[in-house]
Amino acid sequence: MPDAAVAFCTLSIMSLARLDIDSGLATLTLDRPDKRNALSAELIADLEGLLETISGDDSVRVMILQGEGKSFCAGMDLQGVLDDPAKMAGMLHGLSRAMRAIRRLPVPTIASVQGAAVGGGCGLAVVCDYAFSHPGAKLGYPEVELGVCPAVVAPWLIRRLGSGRARSLLLAGGTMAAEEALEIGLIDQIIPAEELSEAVQAFASKLAKGGQHAMAITKHWLNELEGSLEDEIFERAAQISADVIAGEEAQERLSRIFARP
Questions:
Q1: Rounded distance, CA 77 to CA 121, Å?
Q2: Could you give the C-alpha distances from 191 to 50, 71, 81, 188, 194, in angstroms and in order?
Q3: Domains (ranges, CATH) in the chain?
Q4: pLDDT tens, 165-195?
């Protein structure tokens, strides 16, 4: 048996996400690299389950959120659910719950963003306490170009950037380079790609030295001050996105993109 003094475990029962906990550091990995970690119903469910595990583990001091492969997260996986409004609504509500769960973890959270973080994927990065990326990465919210409403991510982007900057980004759509994302405050640091993982690990180790109780109380108070503990606005946001994506404009635009007959 392994040495009991070494706190390490890996949870990989859920096939589209995995959780590694090693000496207080929880690394949560989106594990759908063939789809650039696009958020399917199954991946969102896996993410919710593993976040619940982290929340209930008193040994965890810091969480890192990352994606397997070339991209952090390509956003919502819309292909195959366009004719199923109920499933799409379920995915959006699930993503909303997952984002709230990340924000409400009692430990610091760091998004390690490689390749691309788009739409809901960029939302996952923004909801973390810190976001690190690398030169050449792409981040942003192209939803309006697709006829989709970015309502789910909007509350978190406002909290991150302020309402004016969030309004400009969400109405314009598109993506931006990591350098611009750093300039406007969407991410916190840019690290050379080959050094990103090491830099995130080092920063996580630094954060883990903080007082556990003090950190948890500070996070809860910050969440209370910014209104992140209220569920109503986030549930409404998910439903707004679901209603828009089920509408004629979004369906027509997305049908063209996915070449649906």
A1: 11
A2: 27, 16, 36, 10, 8
A3: 8-196+209-257 (3.90.226.10)
A4: 999 999 999 999 999 999 999 999 999 999 9
